[in-house]
Amino acid sequence: MTYRIAVLPGDGIGAEIVPQAIRVLEAIGAKYGISFTFTEGLIGGIAIDKTGHPLPQETLDLCRNSDAILLGAIGGPKWDNLPTHLRPEVGALLPLRKELGLYANVRPCRTYEALADASTLKKEVLSGTDMVIIRELTGGLYFGAKGREDVEGGQKAWDTMVYSTPEIERIARLAFEAAGKRNKQLCSVDKANVLESSRLWRETVNRLAAEYPDITVTHMYVDNAAMQLVRRPSQFDVVVTENTFGDILSDQASMLSASLGMLASASIGGEVALYEPAHGSAPDIAGQKKANPIATILSVAMMLEYSFNRVAEARDIEAAVEKVLAKGFRTGDIMEAGKTLVNTEEMTNRVLEELA
Ligand code: NAD
Ligand code: IPM
Ligand code: MN
């Protein structure tokens, strides 16, 4: 079996971590007799520089003709002041997700025993944390009507949070199914005390709940959820929420596993799934070989499981990462006293040694 992987390294540390995750896939391929073909495509700032557009048609075609997509990160200061529709974020990442129908972004987040002291949160608070945030990815503020116009005294600008019943139903179903495979607790996060779109969200989740009698559903306002995430994160199993809330809460939740550089993600629900670390291009550390490759390595583990049903292979990667952390190897973002500082490539080398 040969799996065709579209590889979109993108900008900043994206170009540093993606090759590391490919090394891990190659090692898995050799170990389990799976073959991969890797075809690179341009996306983001580098695509603007080389072609004038952040998401060339060729890249979109490549993605459509692949079995899975591996994305690094896009964006950076160099492209921040371009007209909105040409910026890497709005001009490439959002349309890529939309075009491929990737309406669900799955971000698993748990505490690693070995990293309990590396987190900014107390060990006792982190204990037992193992959750997954399911973020709606093709609706809400990101895709609603937006605009700007001149008014007296300056300008006004607006973004609108829009959700339809079918959009909420499909993400909610995916979250109910995910909870069914885990601890059967689903927490839907919204702002139904203020927002009309949240009221539709909550009604829809409640209506579907009747079809999933084994799942315990709770609702939480997003402001409270932000607080509960750092107060007692172990209370969460599956969290489902709209696009913007999920973006913010998942970066926050990444600190439960000590660093944003640990947070993997899968964008699913469409024709071909996309795997990407939850973090960005990290301009502050780009080009310094400091980036933590683990989020991307864990993202390819998700690829093996979700796209190819290679569960043993995915578990093998996760176990290798845990062993490396247990042995005390650390990139700068998770460094603590008494541990061994390694760079991006060395961290991957250690993972490969455990896989061998
Ligand atoms: P960021 O996620 O790039 O970085 C936030 C902080 O986390 C930085 O201090 C960075 O050094 C650190 N960090 C992130 N990933 C790390 C890793 N793997 N190892 C070690 N440290 C890591 O967010 P930002 O600085 O707000 O955004 C920078 C650029 O990335 C912006 O252009 C933004 O739009 C873009 N962005 C892209 C994506 C994506 O491509 N999916 C996601 C988020 C942000
Ligand atoms: C993410 C990023 C993106 C988002 C940006 C870069 C458009 O922050 O993948 O979390 O907000 O979805
Ligand atoms: Mn984000």
Characterize the overall form.
Answer: globular
Helix tally equals 12
Q: What's the β-strand tally?
A: 14
Structural class: alpha/beta
| Ligand inventory | nicotinamide-adenine-dinucleotide, 3-isopropylmalic acid, manganese (II) ion
Which percent bin holds the helix content?
40-55%
Instruction: List the helices and strands in order.
Output: EHEHHEHEHEEEHEHEHEHEEHHEEH
The neighbouring-strand order within the major sheet is: 2-1-3-12-11-4-5-10-8-9
Under CATH, the homologous superfamily of the largest domain reads Isopropylmalate Dehydrogenase
Count of folded domains = 2
The CATH topology annotation of the largest domain reads as Isopropylmalate Dehydrogenase
Cα radius of gyration in angstroms: 20 Å
Low-confidence segments, given as residue ranges, are: none
CATH architectural arrangement of the largest domain: 3-Layer(aba) Sandwich
Organism: Heliomicrobium gestii (Heliobacterium gestii)
Enzyme class: oxidoreductase
Binding site for NAD(+): 76-89, 280-292
Keywords: Amino-acid biosynthesis, Branched-chain amino acid biosynthesis, Cytoplasm, Leucine biosynthesis, Magnesium, Manganese, Metal-binding, NAD, Oxidoreductase
Describe this structure in words.
With 356 residues, the protein is of the alpha/beta class. It has 12 helices and 14 strands. The mean pLDDT is 97. Bound molecules: nicotinamide-adenine-dinucleotide, 3-isopropylmalic acid and manganese (II) ion (MN). Manganese (II) ion is lined by residues 247, 251. Substrate binds at residues 97, 107, 135, 223. It comes from Heliomicrobium gestii. Catalyzes the oxidation of 3-carboxy-2-hydroxy-4-methylpentanoate (3-isopropylmalate) to 3-carboxy-4-methyl-2-oxopentanoate. The product decarboxylates to 4-methyl-2 oxopentanoate. The record marks 142, 191 as: Important for catalysis.
